[in-house]
Amino acid sequence: MLNEFISVAEGFQTSVNIAYDLYNDEKVKSFIPTTSAIDIIEDVMLSTASPSAQRARILIGAYGRGKSHIILVLLSLLFKKDRKLFETLLTKMQEVNPGLYDFVLEYLNSDKKILPVVISGSSASLTQSFLNALQQTLHSAGLDSLMPETHFKAAITSIENWRKNYPDTYKRLLLELTESLDSFILRLQEYDVTAYERFIELYPALTSGSIFNPFLGFDVVELYEKVTAELCANGYSGIFIVYDEFSKYLESNIANATISDIKLLQDFAEKCDRSGNNQMHLMLICHKDIANYIDEKLPKEKVDGWRGVSGRFKHMNLHNNYSQMYEIISAVIKKDPQAWPVFYQEHRDEFDDLVKRFTANGLLSTAKGETVNAAIEGCYPLHPISTFILPRLSEKVAQNERTLFTFLSASDKNTLPAFLNSAEGDFPMLTPDLIYDYFEPLLRKEPYTSDTHKLYKLTSNVLRKVAPDSLGAKIIKTISLIYIIEQFEKLPPVYDIIIETFYDTTHSTQSISDALNELIEKDCQRRFEIADFRRLKNAGK
């Protein structure tokens, strides 16, 4: 059984949530650094040493690219500074960027530390999100005294004053509320803007026409600036605000966001970039650039506002460096140091043949030798074509619940661990059809107008014509994935590729060829004369 000498690295059993995992040392230790990740860490680390640096950033990358994990490690570097947590990262830094390695060591050995503030969720009010996150952070750090009075607290103080000194006003308030007073006060404590607006609305009727406005000109950005100054007076170097999954806020609120919310982000970016020695950093984490969320049907003022927000932030992109993804996959798939060399030597011919064939056919032709070894030996038992497809498919359709990492680590059906526990044969390999089965729920949920969903529907119709676990079904799923990822230069849906995919399993070339011919006879495919493409055919048409 493969599970006797192959396992999954610890720390990949669940996805990273920055707010929940900020103090999870195991998550930090399990980080697998790539060159792209080190570039992002370098940019931020260097900005801590330069008073004039740009400190407002947007980190952009598709699901499953490890954005949250990178930022979790970065925040730990800036705040916790425990060198033991970063041995893997430091080793990689020393190898690829010795200057940064020396700089980070100097930072770790210094008395500098930056307090992380993590905002999560998709609250309709940015004011509430920023204030709530700051209050919770200061409370967790034992720094409640640094949180300034706000108009939310002032409203609560007024209610307490009525309860003690003005019982008639207090009773009228209770009658006017459509919820319990405890619930109302809790919402004020959580900086709920709608609760505050309700208090403002009721205040004149309760106080003979008075207007409640204790903090004329109150400004969230100025409040953060004051807290940062207090932090710096108490031994900190500054504050680092991360809005995790800012995409969710944009998806649900970009049309309804107020001009004041848009201005809040613009002002915050400008304040961070001018923060000098009292450092303020702001990082928004997105799946796409803000411009991709802007609906041109919005009022021109809001369109211009959101474009202005985007322009004030430094854009950092996690590029599609798939060779680095192969390295990550190989690092996740752990081989027993005693048993693996024995297995490798026993199957040296098979591994050498895979390297020869998949460099010759162009799939790995441009990769360096180390990358080829990572993609073939390091990623085993994934078939090389599975290794090629997995990160590209994950980037295209993955969501939080199903990504490249959950496929590699989760104990669910159709995952790598499930394959390790059940694989049979002398040299078993995980073929692309299993990847299709795992991501099938996401393919089904793609927008019905998308090409991916149309291919899914087409595939579902064709699969009804063949036995569920047959070689024909596996071929159909593989062809479907090839069309979904659209990398035809390297992975075209041709006869030779299908043979290459299943040749390394228990199937002979003849049986694969027979299965292809049977699919044609069942009207599941049609031959494209140009380039010998084999494409699924919708039998319903």
Question: Main attributes?
Answer:
two-stranded antiparallel ribbon, single chain, 27 helices, globular, alpha/beta, 541 residues, five-stranded parallel β-sheet
Describe this structure in words.
The strands form three sheets. This protein has a five-stranded parallel β-sheet with strand order 3-4-5-2-6, with helices on both faces. The chain is an alpha/beta fold and about 550 residues long. The model is unreliable at about 525-535 and about 535-540 (pLDDT under 50). The chain has helices at about 20, 25-30, 35-45, 65-80, 85-95, 100-110, 125-140, 150-165, 165-175, 180-190, 195-205, 220-235, 245-255, 260-275, 300-310, 320-330, 340-345, 350-360, 370-380, 385-395, 405-410, 415-420, 430-445, 450-465, 470-485, 495-505, 510-520, and strands at about 5-10, 55-60, 115-120, 240-245, 280-285, 315, 335, 525-530, 535. The chain is built from 27 helices and nine strands. About 55% of the residues lie in helices and about 10% in strands. It is globular and about 90 Å long.
